[in-house]
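COURSE: Structural Biology Practicum
ASSIGNMENT: Worksheet 4, Part C
STUDENT ID: 0417
INSTRUCTIONS: Below are two proteins. For each, the amino acid sequence is given first, followed by its structure token string. Answer the questions at the end about the second protein only.

PROTEIN I
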Amino acid sequence: MGFVRKLKTMFEITGEKASTVFWYILAHIAMEGALLLPPIATAGIIGVLTTGGTINEIFGWAGFYVASYILYTSIRTAVYRKYERMAKQYHILLQRKLMEHIVKNDGIFDEISKGKIIASCTDDVRWVVDVTDCIAMATSKLTKLAVIFVIFAVHDIWVAIVAVLVDTIYMILMNKNVRNYSKHFDGSRKYEDKAADVLNQVLKNPRQIKAMNILPAMLRKYDNAARKWLEQYTSRRRDREKVYVHDEWMAYLGKIILYIMMAVFVINGQMTVETLVLLISYFEQVVTSTNELWRDCLRPLAEYSVQAERIKKILSYTQKSEVEFGDLDNDYIKGLVEFKNVSLNRRGEKSLKHVSFKARPNEITAIIGPKGAGKTSVVQLLARIIKVNSGKILIDGESIYDYSRRVYNSNVAGVSPDSFVMEASIRDNLALIDKNRKRQEAACARVGLSRRISQLPQGYNTIVKEGEEVLFEGDKQLLAIARALLTRAEILVFDEVSSVGAKAIPNLSAILEDLKQDHTIILVTNETELVKGADRVVEMAGGKVVWTLRKR
């Protein structure tokens, strides 16, 4: 039934030890084993009644019956508590692991839809623990069935053969439907993801969708995904119906045949009433355990395994352009940035061709040029999102690929046009980089954000929410600049940070002039006002440096 493969997937995504799962499975087997004891007590009492035993013997069997259920309850409590601990651990562990992996491999959205990733991070992680739980339950129930069939064989081989034959046919029918169910469940999740992608786009851009009147087109995309989801869902429900309605007849027919067969044995003196009661009790457990094997183990396992595989797919994604760090741990960075004959091939085309320029400490270096000039590639190279094909990028004479992660990330910081603001207080947004309140307030004062914050109802404790204009776009960019300052980076890279229009920062030129006193400023822009304030201008076109001008 593929238990080993499913457990292997679970081990890969959670890092769980096989020994822990082994003991958990043994506990489940012990729990099911405890359920085999009460029928022995019941048969014992019947034996006393039919053979003329004493009242003390009945009390003895009754005590055995109570002790059996106490044992079962104790083991079950321990299993439930272990399950609860595992569930908490797996949920938190996997969400953290997924977040870290997605940030490290941000190109994943080119391969896997955002809807699927969100569903996996929020919904699928909840059910991974149940892969282990279902396998433990299934193993324990299969072990229990094997023990019962051995007991049947000890008492009567023909009874055992009939019981095994009935249950085997029942299991074959169920297993066939489980495979179909799993296939259709996987399909339904696929189209749920597509519907979620459409919903995510609508929620992210409701105003634009309304203004451009493109809701009908979005709804058509949603309806197409919903129609295909309904097809898969309907097929899945039919597979489930086959087990609960069509396949159970086999179990009930087999039960009738077996009970008639044993009744004949009792009438003919080949079996005692005591044994009849014992075997009937055990076959009732066979039917119950087989039903539970489908309802509580195999069918849910088909779903949970699909969800575990979805998580595995995300965690298995490795960004092809991931750039490794070196081991140079020199943290005494002055901030001289040099591009030396840098060329870059992307998607089979050259986006940079032999680019050379310098950005010096205590200067503003503006990189200008039309769309497609190669400015974004320069920023991505400095952010280490991509790596050069030839040439060198140096900081203080050392290759940027030789620096350790700690040194590089603490000395090069970027500010993008789409400033990330977490839905939290301004204080908490700053604390993402530095929790020291004095340094937070000093950074905000330096970029001119303190006055705006002082006007807010809760000051630094004001909650910033998406869609609410607590902070204007310009303020959010200033907050991003303040966070960049809190990194204490020597080199600040500003990518298309605007000084005019809707995202205005009226005094951005003055802020940059101040920041250059203790930073290297690299500014990608076409804003005339900002270019005027630059110390050095590098113009690019077609992936090349057209000219460089030192103004001061």
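PROTEIN II
(use this one for the questions)
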Amino acid sequence: MTYLCNQPDAFVDEMIQGFAAAHRDLIVAVDGGVVRRHPAEPGQVVVVIGGGSGHYPAFGGLVGSGLAHGAAMGNVFASPSAQQIYHVALAAHAGGGIMFCLANYAGDVLNFNQAQARLQAQGIDVLAVVVTDDIASAPLAEHPLRRGIAGALPVFKVAAAAADRGKSLDEVCRIANEANARVRTLGVAFSGCTLPGAQKPLFYVEHGKLAVGMGIHGEPGLYQQEALLADDLAEMLVEKLLQDISPAGDLPKGTRISVLLNSLGSVAQEELFVVYRKVDQLLHSRGLIIVEPVVDRVITSFDMAGISLTLFWLSDELETYWRAPTDTPAFKRGAISRSALATDAVMIAQAAVVSQSVTPGSYASQRIAAIMLEIFVSAKKIIEAQQEELGRLDAVAGDGDHGIGMLRGVSAALDAAQGAHDAQAGADTLLTLAGEAWAARAGGTSGALWGVMLSTLGHELGDTDAPDLTMVASGVAAALREVVQCGKAQLGDKTIVDVLQPFSAKLDQATARGVSVATAWQDAADIANTAAQRTQDLLPRIGRARPHAEKSIGTPDPGAISLAMMITAAGEVIRRHCV
């Protein structure tokens, strides 16, 4: 249970303010997250990490000398938006290029990719390394599909240490990729976690049971078994990890290996030490040499009662960077001399937020923009009413935050649409600004894709003409293409594509019949709602729900359901204004 918050929607913003105030000697808050107070030397590569909040020390607590140069901090259990990542990266940039290092979740990958493209378009060298250490999330043969969890720390650490020693961007990425190939993690939980303001956890573990292989976003474990004594649990974790590292047999004696025993939230430090005692015995009995172990909170899941074990086998090069001094709010090693630091920079150079001047649209397009503003008002009411249900659907095989994310997104889009309407914007400008606001506020995969859908539709409609059905259908089809391109989902993957594709197809068919926009939209909305409900029969093949595919059978995809809700809300407004 989380006990202390004001308004759940303001939790992350207030948390970052307090975090920055508590550690102002080490970090500075910037738009989108935090960066080192002592910036990198001019011309140096910088390492920018990031992910959802709710995982402290990850990600902001790992920013500081010897570790990350900046961290983009998203909403609770939601990836930071591309805009947040972009701003943090520019604030940290020292002229030598930027390496993004992130955990392998669809929303993080999508938003970091978008930020990377934006920075590269400005002539900044940016490369990315994706952490894939969770052995429960995919078999060894599908290593690139694995999630990133506590094993992200060694990857972040060695990459940042290499950057601080003046390595090139290519070299920093090579070192990070080698570390990722040598790290394995497995986690277990005795209870679920509870989001700020929520009254119940995202999942339950039966008393006396143990969930094996759960994710750090409240995703339930792959299976539950009888709870184990501390020594037996240590043995299970060590055996499974060693088997994954070396399926043909144990690592050779004398192999140097680091160990991270991580509390996922509410497991006490003393309990960790009881487990580590046995881990240490087991590894030494195999002739392995333990180097600089970490027994602490590394990456948490709010109040989840659980632990994870990470094994990281070392080369000489990786060991040098792993052992290098570090001084961050949450991770310290050795001593870093104050005089060796760069000049204190209280005012970090941030990406300027340029206010966009709005060019008024034509009278005809302004009328359409007014209808769109009304659609956002109606959509927000529907999402507010269905927020809890959307969260419930998402918690079946995901992290339960879809309703919260949708409400954040549509609220931000409504505010932006209202501002655009007041400035006499046309349809394109209003939808583009609303899409940017949605993506920036909601974060995650859903936020990014809604931003893409709205801005793409707007570009097709323009700021000049009153769109006819052909233009509307063309805009929806273009939005579908962009969603598939960005999100990589296909029909049948149990995503919003399973609603957007039949909806688009029905609108295309209506253009040949000469019906009104209102009639065509209503017919297509009926198809969309039916398609959304039919996703309950599909197995997820992409995203966080994929490791829990069987659990999602019988439950429709929350993203598909929320898209159908939005389409329905739009249809009701269109029917009132269009004949």
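ANSWER KEY EXCERPT:
Q1: The chain has three domains: 8-180+317-332, 188-296, 363-577.
Q2: DSSP finds 17 helices and 15 strands in the chain.
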